[in-house]
Amino acid sequence: GVDISTFATPKTVYRNNMLYWINGKDRQVVAFSTATNSIVWTFPVDQAYDIALSVSGDTIFVGGDFWQFGAQFNRSIGAISRVTGTELSWDPSAGGVHDFGVVKSLIVSNNKLYIGGKFAALGYNNLMRLDIATQTTDIFNANPNDTVCDMALSGNQLYIAGSFTQYYGSQNRTYLAAINAANNTPVAALNPAINAYLQQIELYNGQIFISGNFTTVNSTARNYLASVGTTGILSSWNPSVPSGTILLNRMRNRLYVTDIINSAFQVYCLAPGQPAAFTTSTATVCAGQQNVTYTVSVPPYATGYNWTYSGTGAVINGTGNSVTVSFSANATSGNLSVSAVSYCNLPGAPRSMSITVNPLPGADAGKDDTLNCYFPQIILNGNSVTPGVNYTWLLPDNSTQSGQNITTPLYMNGDYLLTVTDTITGCMKNDTVNVAIDTVSPDVTVPAQPAYISCTAPALLDGSSSTPNVAIWWRDVTDMSNTYHPDPYATNNLANHYMLVQDLYNGCKDSAQFAPVLNQNIPNAVLLSHPLPVGPVAVDTITCAQTNVVLLGGSDSLSTVFSWTDTSGTVFPNPATLTATGLYTLHIVRTDNGCIDSSLVLYIAQDITPPNLSILPGNTNLTCSNSSTILDAQSLTGNTTLNWTGPNNFTANDPATASDTGWYFITAVRADNGCSRTDSVHVSQLPLIIVSAGNDTLVCKNTPVTLTAIAQGTIPNLIYNWSNGPASATNTVSVPDTTAYIINASGSNGCAGSDTVIVFIPPDISDSLDVFQDCDGSNTGNIQVYASGGIPPYTYSVNNSPFTASPVFSNYAFGTYAITIMDSLGCTHTDMAVINQYSNLPQPYFLAATNTMQGDTLVLVDISNPHPDSVQWILPFGAQIIGGSMFSPVILLPDTGYFSITMQAFFGNCVLDTTKLVHAGPIDTSFATQNNLNGIDSLWLYPNPNNGQFTVGVDLFKKQNLVIQVFDGLSVLHFQQHFQETDYISLPVGLSSSLPDGTYLLRAIGEYDARNIVFMISH
User: Fold this and answer.
1) Which residues, other chains included, contact 133 with Cβ-Cβ below 8 Å and sequence gap of 6+?
2) DSSP readout, 503-556?
3) Which of 241, 270, 299 is the last residue of a domain?
4) 122 and 201: one domain?
């Protein structure tokens, strides 16, 4: 049903067993199945004479000179489904391309659609490229100056044919041109001279087949049909075709030529391409080399191959693109050629390579030989008549060795293959030598009976062999020197002994192990008299209670005799009675093999050390007051008993009460070893009365005290007599000064005794009173009391008022006042003070060390008398108060030099000033100055101040004002007292008992310097 004579175009597209072409009679795109030999679908293209097809996947692009495509008008290009033959929605007019004019050729590549024909669209003439996905034009401005009738694409090379004579502006091309589609540039290599326009082109194997209205190509006659290379060179192909329109169509390696005027077909079988270079090959082989592989790549449309070899003695195996060639021992060099053959048996251009066949070198492995025990290795000598060769040996174990001559491994028999390699050609030849072996060992017969080693005799080893002409030796396996001893052999070694037998014919040896039997079992030792000690401890101990130790040894072994020895070698029978400490060894001898055991060594200890003993100090006299005394002793040795014995069969445990005079003995006995120690003491009788006059006492001057004497014990006719008092047990005294009193006691039997008691009287209380009138004219004043003597601390009373701890009495009217001082013992002292208009006015005064070192802190202490209500300090510029209190600030001077410091004291409404000049700088004690000659000479305190009660002593170079202070570790002031115009003080200080334990600071501040003492309070 297809009218081939009315084809508008002969182009037929083949995809997946389907043919797609244009039925020119019915104006249809036809899909024809080669599998079923039937039409699958048709798609009408009306009013069209020039129609082009291109298939991409499931899409067929259709172009021509039609003005309607399917339901779309003004369209000369469109797309239909390859599967169903229905129109697709693909529309390049959406990208701005509306009029393609006449489309004569379509090519799809890389999602691009190349369009050739007669048109002008969007600035592109006769040739353009569309992006299939976006349906927009791509920059491709070759712009041929006339119709593009046909196109072909190979890689990036686009070939165009038609009636044009120029492209890319001024580039001259007569009807055939090439474009680099990758970079949109003309290809200069293709520019043949063709004398008339072209209608069609086909590409195959580097050739461009062209048809058209021409009669010459490159000035050579070619009528309507020709073939040129990609560089424009005309081929020899010159088919004879009638004049008229010649249409081309290539399918695989067949070129169909159609004369549409005469409705005649011509089919040309195209030769396959030349195979590429050999991919698996060798140009040099050796004579006799087998199955050498030669391979070429498969060119397109090749159905077979022709292989030939120009030399002799070579057999080619196979007909494909890969063959093997076996070369005989007499093969000669030659050329190996291969050409591909198409289905029509048309050969393509051949591919050849030159093969050199090299001769084999000579190889001689030598004569066969035999290994034996004398010669477990032999030397194999290889030889070759060919110079410049290498030798390699393949051993029976498939290992290899290199070298012309080799030594065989020990006892390795078999075939040794020698390979000789020509170092120039690499050709190899083999030869084999056989190495046999004779290593049959002689017979070995070990002694039939055991050979015994006793403690006194060696074992005798005696072997034999049934093999004649042999030598027999024995060797100790532990002998690293491999010393061999002739048979028979006497040995004391228990290790296995090799009996070695050597065949004197082939040198082979055999051996067997034979071990002597040890008959050296030593007897075992058993201690029967004691448990066997564990570890390094004594089996028994010689003590004062046990003067000897008996050791009895035994054994489970039969036929034994026993003895004991000490370290000096003295022998004792068994059992052994031993009286000395030391090590003792049990010796056991077996009479059947002479073996001895001396492993049992026992230690006998000795402990005869007496216990420690001492009599404790105490009264060892009987007196008129005491008819008995206590005797006491002690021992520092544990587990010891103490017992006393004495006159009149006296016995008692310690401690003991002794009532008789004479010698008393104390005996200490250790319970663990029975050892003892004895000491003695003598008890005497003294005519002594023990009497007590009581404890010494402290009272105020002239205070009555009753002294009472007490005698110890019951004394007949007891009489008391005081040395300065009555003859009675009591004595009441009242004294102004400290006095000692002695009491004497006497009784029957010449008994007498005495004791002394002291009545202490403290120093008298004295005082110093300062009286001041107030400065405001109010006829009032104050009294300050300074007490000493007696027993501090003190309390004070004015005109019999209640006693108070403060020594200052303020705001008293003018008048006369009785001041009473009472110390801690209750002793009192009264003095009179008068306040009137003649009394001193208040005077401000403060202490400061007037010479300090730079960077030292300086303490200012108000010692005004009377004490002001408050004070203010006027300091030099830069000085800082860094601690202390208002009346005793701690300051830091800014620099060295002399500085003026003023204290303003406020007494009621009065304000009084006083100023001092203070020096800060380095002090040179080697130079006598007013400062270091007038300061504090020494500062001390006593006794131990741990309870807070002590006396402070200060010695100064000259009389001056002084203040004593006590601070705790937090700089809190707990005590302060000042003195005026003094060069020595002794001041009792009683700090509060509630002060916590810790570190305290005693400080003495004078007019010129200050001293410190750090002390501890620990109640």
Assistant:
1) 111
2) ETTT--EEEEEE-PEEE-PPPP-EE-SSPPP-SS--SEEEESS---EEE-EE-S
3) 270
4) no
Would you give the end-to-end CA distance of the chain in angstroms?
140
Q: Is residue 444 part of a domain?
A: no
Domain-embedded: residue 210: yes
Enter the tokens of residue 957. 């170079």
Partners of residue 783 on adjacent β-strands: 771, 809
The model's pLDDT over 381-399, given as tens digits with 9 standing for 90+, comes to 999 999 999 999 999 999 9
**SS3 per-residue string spanning 959-1001:** EEEEEEEEEECCCCEEEEEEEEEEEEEEEEEECCCCCCCEEEE
Distance from C-alpha of 713 to C-alpha of 625, rounded to nearest angstrom? 4
> 3-state DSSP call for residue 355?
strand
SS3 588: strand
Are the CB atoms for 348 and 271 separated by under 8 Å? yes
Name the strand (E) or helix (H) holding 934. helix 930-934
Confidence of residue 120 (pLDDT cuts 50, 70, 90): confident
Tokens 């070695």, residue?
Answer: 500
DSSP string for 411-447: T--EEEEEEEEETTT--EEEEEEEEEEE-PPPP-B--
Are residues 5 and 68 located together in one domain of the fold? yes
Residue 130 sits in the same domain as residue 38:
yes
3-state secondary structure of 345: coil
Query: Of the ranges 99-108, 499-508, 575-584, which is most confident?
Result: 575-584
Q: If pLDDT is split at 50, 70 and 90, which confidence band does 926 have? A: very low
465 domain-assigned: yes
Would you give the DSSP letter of residue 156?
A: T
Give a yes or no: residue 446 inside a domain.
no
Element (H, E) at 931: helix 930-934
376 and 335 in a single domain? The answer is no
Count of structural domains, the chain? 10
The CATH number of whichever domain residue 25 belongs to comes to: 2.130.10.10
pLDDT band at 1 (very low <50, low <70, confident <90, very high): very low
Peptide bond into 807 cis (omega under 30): no
User: Which residues make Cβ contacts (< 8 Å) with residue 668, sequence separation at least 6?
Assistant: 610, 611, 612, 613, 633, 635, 637, 640, 641, 642, 676, 677, 678
**159 vs 251, which has greater pLDDT?**
159
CATH number of residue 729's parent domain: 2.60.40.10
CATH code, 881: 2.60.40.2550
Q: What is the mean pLDDT of the segment spanning 114-130?
A: 88
pTM (predicted TM-score): 0.41
Q: Distance (Å, rounded) from C-alpha 420 to C-alpha 865?
A: 135
Give the position of tokens 């002239």.
702
Asked if omega into 655 is within 30° of 0 (cis), the reply is: yes
Beta-carbon contacts of residue 207 (< 8 Å; ≥ 6 apart):
227, 228, 229, 235
Going 524 to 528 to 533 to 538, the CA torsion angle's sign is negative
Per the structure, the complete domain to which residue 646 belongs is given by: 614-685
Specify the pLDDT at position 542. Answer: 95
Whether the CB-CB separation of 329 and 302 falls below 8 Å is answered with no
DSSP state of 383: B
Task: Return all residues near 164 (Cβ < 8 A) that are at least 6 apart.
Answer: 126, 144, 145, 146, 147, 148, 173, 175, 177
- Whether 731 and 707 have beta carbons less than 8 Å apart is answered as yes
Query: What is the per-residue burial (b if ≥16 Cβ within 10 Å, else e) of 11-37?
Result: bbbeeeebbbbbbbeebbbbbbeeeee
- Phi then psi dihedrals of residue 850, to 5 deg: -80, 5
Amino acid (1-letter code) at residue 810: S
Whole-angstrom distance, CA of residue 790 vs CA of residue 823? 6
DSSP state of 923: -
Neighbours of 1016 (CB within 10 A): 11
- Cis previous bond, 866, omega within 30: yes
Question: What is the C-alpha to C-alpha distance for residues 622 and 199, in angstroms, rounded to an integer?
Answer: 167
